[in-house]
Amino acid sequence: MDDELLELQRQFEFAQQAKSSIRLSERNVVELVQKLHELRIIDFELLHTVSGKEYITPEQLRHEISEELKKLGRVSLIDLADTIGVDLYHVEKQAQLVVSEDPGLMLIQGEIISQSYWDTVAEEINERLQECSQIALAELAAQLHVGSELVASVLEPRLGTLVKGRLEGGQLYTPAYIARVSAMVRGASRGITVPTNLSVLWSTLQQLLQEMEGTTGIAVEGSFFQSLFNGLVKEGEVLGTLRAGIHWTPTVFAIAQKECVDSFYSQNSFISYDSLQKLGISQPIQYLQPRFPEGIPLVTAFVHPSMIEMLDAAIEDAIERGSWLDSVSLLPTSFGAQDASKILSLCPSVQSALKANKALIVGDSYLFSSSFVKDVYDRVEKEMGTLSHAGSSTVVLGDDLHMVKEAKSGHDLNKSSEPAETVTESGNRKRGNEKGSKKKKGKSSGTKTVSAEGDSDNEDYIPTKSKKNQKKGKDASSSQAADSRKVAKKDSIKTQEENVPSEEWLMQKLEALLPDFEEQGVDDPQTILIYLADYLRPKLINYWKERRKALFTENVEKMKHLLDNVQRKLDESFLNMQLYEKALDLFEDDQSTSVTLHRHLLRTAATSIADMLFHNLDIHNKLKNGTQVEDSQNSESISLSPGERTAIAKSLPENQSKRALAVVEALEGKRVETFMAALRDLAEESGLLLKKLDKKLERALLHSYRKDLTSQVSAETDPVSLLPKVVSLLYIQVHSRALQAPGRAISVAITRLKDKLDDSAYKILTDFQTATVTLLALISAATGDEQDCSSDRITSKKEVLESQMPALKALVLGTAQA
To answer: What is the Cα–Cα distance from 627 to 393, expressed in whole angstroms?
Structure first.
């Protein structure tokens, strides 16, 4: 085998030394190599050089790359491509194979770096570090033209061997520097006695280091301090607890905190959460419950069961004495109303008393015994009887309204039997017989509808079809307006119901009934009474409603009887008023006499009607509102002053009050027809009926009036009183009119009879009137002195008049009767 190898070498050497007789061009050589490659005679890969004049195998390329790395330690692929003369693509491809085969190499950012290079760099960094004490990785990375992460990854395995230092937060430090900073951290940490945020401490140390090293020093990161601090804590050189990495609580503070909490709790049997938060305990309940398992957490404090026992004893005593107590006053000042409420609910005596209805808790912290509350309620209930109903005329309860409707319906049904008018079942009124022989002539001019509430304020007059000026339809807007008034009325009634008794009235009564609150040292009794009032007021309102309902039930029959009497009296008096009004037409041509007659009628008959009606409406209004009314005097003899009429009118419900005030104003006027119109409106609003004077009723009334006057004239013995009656009777005989004339209008009335009487009768009348005026003048001028002779003259004149009385009576009675 060796001989063959030597033979081959000899032949190869001979072939190399032999001179070729044929020279090939470069082109031919290239073609020849390609042909050999195609024929697989050359079965390995060949790489072209950049110049194209040479071939190189991949193995040779890798060998040359390795040789360059051995010489330099760090080679750029671009530089290799230029040095070797091979395209960069082939260099990168073979470089990756070289790096993958040798774990001591790395390919970073187009460069191949060997571990020997990093060892050299580490030695250089170490020499520099020993001179500067600290170096920033960013500075080293900039110098080496690599990333900081790469520098850190390379230096970490060499720390403590090639590099004598410590890497923290992107900085390299020498052991001496680390020892100095550790001493600073240790001293600062041991000087802390209260919970501290370590980031504040690290900022202080950073400023201190900058002052020590000047502007040339590199800023130390807080993480470096934190790392040193964590090591000190782990080694036990600094004692305390660390929360969330930066909240440091020294052991000395924790000990003092625990002693403070234990001392306060043991001495006072409670501790407030605010106190614990001031001590740095952010979760008081979680802190206290494991330490004091028997304790009870409240809203703002943590208490010992002994405090509940103390409060329980005071509560039990208050319940036995039938008194009250404010639990806040027995508890520490830091306790609030919610704490008092919770601690009250935990007291055994309170729990048992509440189950047995022996106690009541109001306003979170106030406890009243049931006997105390019942006594106060009974006393206030008695005071409720003194409430005035004058200002509550519109307040009618729902059940009361129903009874009002029944009362009115009953009243109207009772009137249905009268011949003058009929009443339907729904309460609608129709005019009756205006003429005796024509009972069905004409239709009603309107329909009175009564709402379900039954209150006269809620009644609306709805016009219906008639012969004269009534429209066929009804305006929709008027209906809407009526509905809105009803709604507003109901809201007003509901508001007033809910305000009886009012809060102000109840507070005043409680202050008057419970003066012992101030005697017991309560600074502001209203703070307690307001809670008691809030508890009592709903009960008092229910009592008030029940009381009103009971009173109203009692008053329903009285109201019905009252309305019947008023209707009966009003029928008679209003017909007479219409009869007297007709006589006034005879004097319309004499303005002064007409005014005198109108005013006289207003001040006599009209005033009597108004006083009777006002008095009864006032009683009816009080009965309707649940007020107990004593039996009054006969309303026919009632005489009211203008002020009393106005006061009654204002006390009535709103719509009724307006019409009553119109009647009062009409009484002070000059026209009777104004009064009659106002009276009709008031009667209509009050649900009363006014009969219209027809000819049949007029004849009957005139006959009755004439008969009554005739009997009065026949029995009259006073000459002064006789003349007006004779004149009235003459007007009935001559004009069929019932004249009501005052004394100063008699002269004009007699003058109007001149054409209706013969001369002798007229002379008797005028002579008697002249003598009467003379007599009245003498009586008016008499002084009452004994020496005065006027008494003789008066007596003489009376005798003359008395002698003329038979002749005067004969004018109206006839000779035989006179």
So the answer is: 10
